[in-house]
Here is the input.
Amino acid sequence: MLKNGAFTPGASPATWLGVMGGGQLGRMFAHSAQAMGFKVAVLEPAADCPASHAADHFLCADYADAAALADMGAQCVAVTTEFENVPAASMTQLAASAFVAPSAACVAIAQDRMAEKRFFTDCAAASGVLPAPHHLIRNRADIDAMPPALLPGLLKTVRMGYDGKGQVRVANRAALEEAVDGMQGVECVLEKLLPLACEVSVLVARGADGRALVYPIAENVHRNGILHTTTVPALHASPAAAERAQAAALVIADRLDYVGVLCIEFFILDDGSLVVNEMAPRPHNSGHYTIDACITSQFAQQVRAMARLPLGDVRQHSPAVMLNFLGDLWFASAAQPGPVEPDWERILAVPGACLHLYGKEEARPGRKMGHVTFVAPTMAAVLESLQAACAILGIAP
Ligand code: ADP
Ligand code: MG
Here is the structure.
């Protein structure tokens, strides 16, 4: 340990960092931690997960496995999570023997859409942003008590939703009743369907000393509820809206006493107003562009924050657009019945292409298989590269 409580990166024997979850976020976290001289332990129940191939020690166990958690706590000086739904109790157990960042309390709020919205509402006086109008729906009585102005709306499960999963659009009361019946008693929240001009996200990094840095605002396009592209600088957010979102994100991170990388999603509405949607207590898909376009990537930043090292420069050195590769791309060719690997050689030949593949064996529709970030001296050149890649892949840009 260094004198200010920081964990030394290049030590002998090595200093170990732990990550709960073995998906692509854990894999990219491991790459960054290792680049800085740390060793990485990954805990995840799925054997052949993306981070297992990058980990220095892979603990293949359930997230709540007390023995595996004890092993990780004993081996690692600090532990973080890449999986939003890791049981908060596991983070609490780890905190007995390692520095845990973000805290179990922060993770627990982000796991529950109602708790999250309550928290955002509590912050509103200082942050200046509110969540979408909403109402908790558990049964017919909740539907009766709901303000009718929430329709048309979006019914979302309170827990375990991601990439648009667990969400149903409901146009009217009959559709809502049907959707609620389909949820089979799972707690839901109905949100008013808002007129979105664009969606943006703000990445904040906050250290254990309370110092925080905010990355440039990122503009996100979703398709079928899944992130499609992230463009930075944002093309459709006014500088005023961008500043308001960044200021709000800093207030929210402060109120949480958050340590690590936090991503907050906002909606900018047709009338220019800003609404806070949700937060991810970890690096986020919309922050992948930072790997290739910023001085310090979101993963390197997570390493620095959890090791209580100085945060890195968040400056963006090049305009960038990130394009997600979903498993659907493997099935784009009508000529062949099975999955066909996209033509990476042609993608790599596009100017400014930085290719990232997650090492997933099986391509499935909707599954995140990788991404490409295009960087260039100008946004016009970045967008030209995006067009070229979309033409190669046979998708609309
Ligand atoms: P997830 O956890 O699946 O990312 P989100 O709440 O972010 O859930 O919803 C996914 C997407 O659905 C959003 O990025 C946005 O495009 C759309 N969406 C969500 N809530 C609303 C809303 N209240 N009004 C309009 N669109 C919404
Ligand atoms: Mg979202």
Summary: The longest strand covers residues 196-206. Residues 265, 278 surround magnesium ion (ligand 2) (CB under 6 Å). The chain has four domains: 2-100, 133-192, 194-311, 318-397. The mean pLDDT is 95.
